[in-house]
Amino acid sequence: MTREVFFTLETAVALTGALVFARAAAFKLRDVEAFADALAAYRILPIGLVEVTARALPVAEIVCALALLAPPTCAAGEVAAAALLVVFALAMGVNLLRGRREIDCGCGDPSRRHPLAWSFVVRNLAFAAALGSSALAPARSGSLVEWAVGAAAAAGLMLLMLCHETFSALPAREGRGAPPLLRLGDPA
């Protein structure tokens, strides 16, 4: 790949990270009590640390979002954001292994439940890997076109994440499986 493609990918990853972390922090700050409840439901932190963590985590997410936007701090922001995503994935994974799929992930709009799912773990780990890889790349400047393509890619990635979040919040269809696939030769 050329240096231009790398710059575009790095820009897309950093801007997506900034959007994701700013949005997550906004939801947490809008309803700190709901986020504290979601955090307590994980049963990982001692109960005395839940409230402090519920207030500190959105601040850390804002710091990550801002760091991802500034070229001098972008690599540090990518490392910090990747570390947070790995911690989130581990907390989700532990609860999924405990069989606790019903709890809210605490990562989105508190007015809609987002039950834990392995897809959230995979998403967080994949995004952490992208951020970590981007942090290892040497910083360089790009053209306006490269930046614009990276920004457009970030918007697309954010839309994909929002779709995943929206679909995961839909109520489960109890007792109904997916429709059977039609095969060639089957009557329509």
Explain the overall architecture.
This protein has 188 residues and is mainly α. It has one domain (3-169). Helix content is 69%, strand content 0%. It is built from six helices and no strands. It has helices spanning 3-30, 32-41, 47-69, 74-97, 118-136, 144-169. Helix 1 (3-30) packs across helix 5 (118-136). It is globular, with a radius of gyration of 19 Å. The protein starts with a helix and ends in a 19-residue tail after the last helix. The model has no long low-confidence stretch (mean pLDDT 85).
Task: Give short descriptive properties of this protein.
188 residues; 6 helices; globular; single chain; mainly alpha
How do the helices and strands line up, and which of them pair or pack?
Blueprint: H1 3-30, H2 32-41, H3 47-69, H4 74-97, H5 118-136, H6 144-169
